[in-house]
Design brief:
seven-stranded antiparallel beta sheet; 7 helices; 7% helix; repeat; TECPR1-like_DysF; lysosome
């Protein structure tokens, strides 16, 4: 007889196996493995883990499990290249399966799970049709598809060869997790599984089937289980008329299920061609009073356990009549019954012991009696007998009197109480007497029980508490064992005349050794451990009956919970144990008496209920939707640009939930609910993790983006769109208020704030902290929180005295009025002024010259669209071009724009040799293409805390940076007009932020960029790229004396610069960043330019010489729009050019200014040196040392 295994699970989820050739229970090697149920088949065992995953244990064998992957390389002959993989459009794929219908390149093959390893690399099969070939594995044919042969003929136009690679299953002898199916929806979580069906195949045991029941009552079938694919491939849902609680599949064509209502269903039509069957037939429970709890089937038998733990056998079951013909009551009370190989029956008793049904044969499939499974445990050579309920200690109290149990045979407790002379009761006892086999000294007469040893009638009538066989909530739903119960009397109040004499058919109990275990259910570990402690400490209560109260105590022992004692069983599976009635198995020898069972005590029941409540609370804490003391602030409907490809707009519902913590702080979560493949899903964003809420340009929708730290790193914000502008603004305001409230931010921006603008014109502000510019532990850019300020600007500049100036897209200058957002009183409403901005939208008309018609809109196939944007990559016509956002409105019609860099002719055309080349305003003999720009103005009107500064329109502006503790009567401000004139604003101060008048500074040519540093050093860039330095600028002479020309970097044209306290940075036309070296107080012009980095759009330098830029892009994210906020790390007096970039929020950022941030990290106290000073120079006075910045 081959060696097979019996599998069992204890209440702690530990899995044990008992070999037919051994005598000792062996625990699974994986000590962290916890299973709820197992189901065994020939050579394998499946299990449901506590994590709701399915696990598989394949028995080790001499033959390894190998699977051959194969693919075919296909080629076609052509006169030029001979045989090549360039096939006809109607041919099969160059790499395909044998049919040629499915593409299978070598790199497409992946291991199905971690339980597989490749044996080697791909190799060519050198045989053709099973015969060795000398053609390198090639097979030839006239065409696809045709009969291939190894012989190459004159008309062989196609050929193929097979590539082979083997993979080996490496998880034999261990528990391996079955991978989730993709793209099919997995049936998890499961509450029951059953393995069977291997007898349907001609090769017995090689093609088993696996069935499962989900906690929602659905039935699932595991497809693709094969000798070379033991894990299977996918789950298939079986249509059910009702919800299912448990099921059992036999080795043949039997499949029974237990419904939630306690009835049973039988699957018909199971066959090798149709392993899932065709229809369901309902079968009633064995009794109408008690529903079915569990079913187990074999080849031609069906066993059922009802909720009162009675065992029933279904007679007349076979392949032609899978429903059977009637029920037979079987003696013994069992919680679990399992039918294994050869229709042998295994069970878990009500006392949590393991039993085997004796005498099961083909002629008597119901067997003759139960015997214990007496396998050895741990280092103890004694077997594990079933538990004796009369042999445990404890102290009797009022709380435990209701659970005092009888010390009679288990069959005397079957069902609810009946009259003593009831014929039904007598029939049941008679059946029990004939089916229970006394073990040990079978010939010894049964000693009669004395009246003093007999329990009271009230205790006999007491209903037994139902103990689920699993921690599945399905069993809890169907667990109403005793719907009616009678009040119980205490032991002292039991009248003596109600004591019944035991029936002669009952079997007396033989005292044995004290068992340290007590029955317990598999979800309450604390109660079981506490019961063991009380059991070991308490004395025996008597000869005939006993009861105890178990106090929940400490569970920690040197061996751990449950390790020192024998297991308390909760499940058994004999589907892989090959025994029969004639088998000689050492651990199935009759070695002890059969005992009755203990029931659940009130203390244990309370402990289990407490643990269930605790698990429920923990489950709620893991679900953000089920928070306590929460209030929905708002719910609504938006559209969501989904994260995965292809990206498209999806209708979603959203909700903002706000909860109040114990300390009074409010925490909010934003939910987005969507449906994917008819499955309801959701994603949520914690408001305290939001870093920015930014309106964005997306398909002319009223859209906004929600940034978090993680989404900033992934460069994928959560993009939502509203139906109207009002809805978008309402959501932005609500979310922004929650973000600011959670971070403790209120009121207008501080004087140290960082200001920025987006390409859309929105104004964003960040409140800096000491760690933002700290030398060590610098705050990462993706953690910065940006909030929006009402208004619309192209660029904005500030300094630490609270002055903020901005320039609109139309060149209008605006000054911040000092009031942020929502006014606090009616008198403050005047500060929210009306702000307007104008912007020009351009499209380009492109033409190409040909000899017949001259310039025409008929271009080459490789040319750009005849109406496009400036780059030529996007087609833009006058008809389909809209304003930047719905907030803008057209205020003019399309006109030809003559003010274009490079000049135009009288019709507005620019000429070039080809696309894309530099265009010029006059035609030459080599110019074959031309373009002209059309422009149209649009206008936006809104309200914000900005006051207009008339009348000159500006193109650039710069405020002198200074420290927070600085005091100046007038703050220097330099600007450039839209025509390139240099201007100096007089009278600017914190009390008069808009200043008094403009002072024109003469220049030889128009300028395009200007900046003033911390020591009144003014630098500027002319429109031709020349760099100039303004000398002799001081508070007494704000306009300076003259311009000094500074050489530009070699072969580079600068376009923008920024001056800090002691450094000058500039950006050229190729987006390179430069630093000016050699700057000293005596020689402020510096000596040379040094290249730092590329990919820079704009740069800003603050009063601490900190460097921030707007990057053109983020490395690795080419699809992101240009414009990302970046911080230069490692900038210091000894390292003015810094070390690396820290990329932050983006893209779509247009401008940033850090010239108001003079917040420095607190400096550590200076420790005086020991001994005389090393330098002969006296220390500098405090007035010459920069102090720590004071945050405002």
């Amino acid at each position: 007889m081959p060696i097979t295994m019996l599998w069992a699970v204890d209440v702690y989820g530990r899995v044990y196996s008992l070999s037919t050739a051994g005598q000792r229970w062996e625990r699974a090697d994986d000590m962290l493995l916890e299973l709820k149920r197992v189901t065994a088949g020939k050579g394998r065992c499946w299990g449901i883990g506590c994590d709701h995953h399915v696990y598989l244990n394949m028995m080790p064998s001499e033959t390894s499990i190998r699977y051959r992957e194969e693919t075919y390389e296909n080629q076609r002959w052509n006169p030029v290249d001979n045989f090549t993989d360039t096939l006809l459009p109607t041919d099969r794929w160059p790499w395909s399966d044998v049919t040629g219908m499915n593409p299978q390149p070598l790199h497409s093959f992946q291991l199905p799970s971690r339980s597989w390893d490749w044996e080697g690399d791909w190799y060519v099969d050198q045989s053709c049709g099973g015969e060795p070939s000398q053609t390198g594995g090639w097979e030839y044919a006239v065409d696809f598809p045709a009969n291939f042969s190894p012989d190459k003929k004159w008309n062989s136009c196609v050929r193929r060869r097979r590539w082979i690679r083997y993979r080996r299953y490496t998880a034999q002898g261990s528990w391996a997790k079955i991978p989730l199916d993709n793209p099919r929806k997995p049936p998890l979580p499961l509450c029951d599984i059953s393995c069977g069906g291997w007898e349907l195949s001609d090769q017995s045991g090689r093609y088993p089937y696996l069935w499962g029941v989900s906690q929602q009552g659905e039935v699932w079938f595991r497809e693709g289980i094969h000798p070379r694919v033991p894990e299977g491939s996918s789950w298939e849902e079986i249509e059910m008329p009702k919800e299912v609680a448990q099921l059992s599949a036999g080795p043949g064509d039997l499949l029974w299920v237990v419904l939630w209502d306690g009835n049973l269903l039988v699957r018909t039509g199971l066959s090798l061609d149709c392993p899932t069957g065709t229809s369901w037939v309902e079968v009633e429970s064995p009794t109408k009073e008690m529903e079915a709890l569990l079913v187990s089937v074999g080849v031609s038998v069906v066993w059922v356990v009802t909720k009162d733990y009675k065992v029933w056998f279904r007679r007349g079951v076979n392949s032609h009549n899978p429903c059977g013909s009637g029920w037979i009551s079987i003696g013994g009370e069992m919680m679990v019954v399992d039918v294994g190989l050869n229709d042998q029956v295994w069970a878990v008793g009500e006392d949590r012991g393991l039993y085997f049904r004796m005498g099961v044969t083909l002629t008597e499939p119901s067997g003759s009696g139960w015997i214990p499974v007496s396998g050895q445990w741990g280092n103890n050579k004694e077997f594990i007998p079933p538990r004796k309920e009369c042999e445990f200690g404890g102290q009797l109290t009022d709380a435990s009197r209701a659970s005092v149990l009888s010390c009679t045979d288990s069959d005397s407790e079957l069902g609810p109480a009946e009259p003593p002379n009831s014929s039904k009761d007598a029939a049941v006892l008679e059946a029990a007497a004939s089916s229970v086999v006394p073990l040990g000294r079978a010939d010894t007469p049964t000693p009669p029980l004395k009246s003093d040893d007999t329990p009271s009638a009230s205790l006999q009538d007491a209903p037994k508490t139902f103990i689920p066989a699993s921690d599945s909530f399905i069993n809890s739903l169907v667990s109403d064992r005793d719907k009616t119960s009678t009040p119980q009397q205490s032991i002292t109040e039991a009248p003596q005349e109600e004591v019944e004499e035991p029936s002669p058919a009952l079997i007396a109990l033989t005292p044995g050794t004290v068992r340290p275990d007590v029955p317990w259910m598999n979800v309450d570990l604390e109660g079981a451990g506490a019961a063991r402690c009380a059991q070991a400490a308490g004395p025996s209560l008597g000869d005939g009956s006993a009861a105890a109260t178990y106090a929940l105590g400490t569970l920690e022992t040197p061996q751990g919970v449950g390790e020192a004692d024998a297991p308390v069983w909760t499940w058994i599976s004999g589907g892989g144990c090959d025994v029969d009635a004639s088998s000689q198995i050492s651990w199935l020898s009759p070695t002890g008496p059969l005992t009755s069972s203990l029931s659940l005590t009130p203390v244990q029941s309370a402990a289990w209920s407490e643990q269930q409540q605790q698990e429920h609370r923990e489950e709620i804490s893991r679900k953000p939707l089920e928070r306590s003391h929460s209030v929905w602030v708002r719910k609504g409907a938006l559209r969501w640009m989904r994260d995965w490809k292809p990206q498209r707009w999806v209708d979603v519902s959203v909700a903002l939930e706000q909860s109040t913590k114990s300390d009074g702080r409010k925490d909010s979560i934003f939910f987005v609910y969507y449906t994917q493949y008819d499955e309801k899903k959701y994603l949520h964003v914690c408001i305290n993790e939001v870093t920015a809420l930014v309106p964005v340009l997306r398909d002319c929708h009223h859209a906004f983006a929600v940034y978090t730290t993680q989404r900033t790193k992934q460069r994928g914000p959560l993009v939502l769109a509203a139906q109207t502008e009002k809805d978008m603004n309402d959501w932005l305001s609500l979310l922004s208020d929650c973000c600011c409230e959670g971070r403790g931010i209120a009121g207008p921006p501080s004087r140290q704030a960082l200001w920025s603008t987006t390409s859309k014109g929105d104004i964003m502000v960040h409140e800096p902290s000491f760690s933002l510019e700290a030398a060590a532990h610098t705050l990462a850019c993706d953690l910065m929180f940006w909030r929006q300020v009402p208004g619309h600007l192209r660029c904005v500049e500030s300094n630490s005295l609270g002055l903020v100036w901005g320039v609109g897209w139309d060149g209008t200058a605006w000054v911040y009025s000092g009031r942020y957002g929502q006014p606090t009183s009616p008198g403050d409403e005047v500060q929210m002024l009306q702000q307007t901005d104008f912007r020009s939208v351009h499209v380009y008309e492109n033409q190409r010259w040909n000899p017949m018609t001259g310039y025409t809109d008929k271009g080459l196939p490789t040319d750009r669209a005849m109406w496009s944007d400036e780059s030529g990559l996007n087609e833009c016509t006058k008809g389909n071009t809209n304003p930047p956002t719905p907030q803008w409105s057209w205020v003019s019609e399309w006109t030809v724009d003559y003010n274009v860099p490079g000049g135009t002719d009288k019709e507005g055309w620019q000429y070039a040799a080809d696309f894309p080349v530099t265009f010029h305003g006059h035609k030459t003999m080599k110019d074959f293409v031309r373009r002209r720009r059309w422009t149209r103005k649009c206008k936006i009107t809104l309200r914000g805390p900005w006051q207009q500064v008339p009348p000159i329109r500006l193109s650039d502006i710069s405020l002198m940076p200074c420290l927070a503790q600085s005091s100046m009567e007038q703050v220097p401000l330099w600007a450039l007009s839209d025509k390139g004139d240099v201007l100096c604003r007089l009278g600017v101060s914190p009390q008069n932020p808009e200043g008094s008048s403009w002072l024109h500074v003469g220049t030889d040519q128009p300028f395009k960029s200007i900046s003033i540093g911390g020591a009144n050093q003014v630098w500027a860039i002319a429109k031709d790229g020349a760099v100039f330095y303004r000398g002799s600028v001081s508070p007494q002479n704000p306009a300076g004396e003259c311009w000094y020309h500074i050489p530009s970097p070699p072969r580079q044209t600068l376009r923008q610069l920024s001056v800090g306290r002691t450094s000058v940075f500039a950006v050229d036309e190729n987006s390179n960043l430069w630093i000016r070296q050699g700057l000293t107080p005596s020689y402020p012009q510096g000596s040379a330019w040094e290249l730092i980095s590329n990919n820079v759009g704009k740069v800003t330098v603050g009063p601490l010489d900190q460097v921030w830029i707007i990057a053109d892009g983020v490395p690795g994210f080419t699809s992101e729009p240009p414009g990302a906020v970046c911080h230069r790390l490692g900038v210091g007096p000894m390292q003015p050019k810094g070390q690396a970039w820290d990329f932050g929020i983006g893209g779509g950022w247009e401008h940033i200014s850090v010239r108001g941030n003079s917040v420095e990290a607190p400096r550590a106290p200076h420790v005086p040196a020991v001994g005389p000073p090393r330098s002969p120079l006296p220390p500098l006075p405090l007035t010459q040392v920069n102090g720590s910045a004071v945050g405002v």
